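tool=predict chain=A
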Amino acid sequence: MLTGVYQATRKDNTIYYRSGIQFRGKHISLGSFDSEQKANSAYLEASRLLDDRTVTIHNVLSYISVLPHEKAVVLVNFRDNGIYIKNPIFLCKGYFIYFLSPAEELKFDRDDLFYYSSHKILRRQGHLYVNDYGMQCSLLSRYGIKPYAVAGRDYFFANGDNTDYRYSNLIIKNHYHGVLAFTKNGMPRYKTQIHINGNYIIGAYRSEEKAAIAYNKAADLAKAAGLRKNFPENYVEIPPKEYAEIYSTLKISEKYLRYLNELSSTPELSD
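tool=predict ok
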């Protein structure tokens, strides 16, 4: 066998070749290949990455043809930073880069290193997520950004780079469903709206929490009127007694209440 190559057999008895390398006392698997020559080429490319410091995380693609890019990132990071991480992560000063692909880099704070070292980032229909305890969790959900949030309206990237997921760069403007922040006479205000055959304004409130509770109340009233629709519920972290008091005293748009009254008198909705 060529250096760094191991022959193996699949369950159907077909032969394939595995490649591996030792570095700093650790055996690192380089992958499986359909020929002994490819497996050996992967070993030789890995050897160069680990020995030649002119090969950097920025030019590594020029030095590999068989070795997967993800594995090359792992090796260069291990060589430069002394930490073996199985995912394609490269540590920088104060943050790290996660290589989604050779051309796509995501930036994260070091505080997230443990999480992304053990959770692979995946993409589906343009959305980034990880599998966590059997569930698909959006990257944005780790920042408290809801699935229905709209970039540029409910949250934005401070430096304009939507690949920079460092906490200081992600600014959340609207935390709750159906709540939009605005300014009136230089003071922050929060408008609540609900979507039922178009948007209905529920009211404007002095706090984001009150606006979120107003949305919940508007949704409850819609269900009571017979509307069969699953409205998201805003979770507001305040004591139950305070929540109940706000809920009971919040004023709701008269126009919206009249609309619900018309709904409740519609035969197909009042069964």
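The first strand starts at residue 5 and ends at 9. The two ends are 77 Å apart (CA to CA).
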